[in-house]
Amino acid sequence: MPHPIMFDDADPVLARVRQIALALPEATEKVAHGRPTFRCGKMFAMYGGSRKGATATPLPTALLFIPDPSEQEALQQDGRFFVPAYVGAYGWLGLELSADTDWAEVAELLDASYRRIAPKRAIAQLPDAGTAP
User: Fold this and answer.
1) Backbone phi, then psi, for 35, in 5-degree steps?
2) Which of helix, strand or coil describes residue 25?
3) Tens digit of pLDDT for each residue in 1-56?
């Protein structure tokens, strides 16, 4: 039985995430578990989720991503970030988004997550392929 769709395709925050994520080389979008996921072979981001814990309150406008290992501890100390249900056990973090989100920061987080999973040929297509964000 397929998961119910848990997002609004007309959501302006999702539109902004799509714009950033799908601008990355070879990035695609696929609905999985009722939510938009962004992939380059493997998944590097998901829109919507919940916090890890006994009361998994849905966060429909959260961005789930794989942080750069060198930044993970600092991000976890920042109260805006949270460990998401299910994928948090694999090192993923989440950030609740809104219209007044710092979109440059979101772009950096998506870039770092993308670089964690994308094949070398896709990373080589990035403007700054020789450096990590």
Assistant:
1) -130, 155
2) coil
3) 788 999 999 999 999 999 999 999 999 999 999 999 999 999 999 999 999 886 77
Spans of all domains in the chain: 12-116
| C-alpha distances in Å from residue 53, one per residue of 4, 56, 58, 74, 92 | 22, 6, 12, 21, 15
Measured CA to CA, the distance from residue 103 to residue 123 in angstroms comes to: 21
What's the CATH number for 12-116? 3.90.1150.30
Nearest alpha carbon to residue 91 among 59, 60, 120, 116:
116
Q: Considering just the CA atoms, what is the radius of gyration of the chain in Å?
A: 14
Mean pLDDT rounded to a whole number for the chain: 93
DSSP state at residue 26: T
Measured from the Cβ of residue 111, the count of other Cβ atoms closer than 10 Å reads 22
105 DSSP 8-state letter: H
What would the DSSP string read from start to end of 59-114?
EEEEEEE---HHHHHHHHHSTTEEPBTTGGGGT-EEEE--TTS-HHHHHHHHHHHH
